[in-house]
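Researcher: Please translate sequence to structure tokens.
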Amino acid sequence: MGFSETMKALSDPVRREILNLLKSGRMTAGDIAGRFDMTGATVSYHLSQLKKAGLIFESREKNYIYYSLNASVLEEVLLWIQSLKGVDEHEEG
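Model: Translation complete:
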């Protein structure tokens, strides 16, 4: 996983919406696909891009694959963006 893959994944509005859905908890690909008007293959592509960027985890249970949010990567991105402001977190007050 690299920073460029993460930013590329976040640049797509569908992938951002998938991340938004996953903040409520883990979901199957079918559950996610049911929220969009697109083919299952397209949803699978978006999920693979999010997984490649490290933004989601995949876990298998019986016949299902569940996807969940990897908040630590999002936290790294937020910390980097905050660092661009040039404000040390200890100076805030």
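Researcher: Any highlights?
Model: Residues 71-84 form the longest helix (14 residues).
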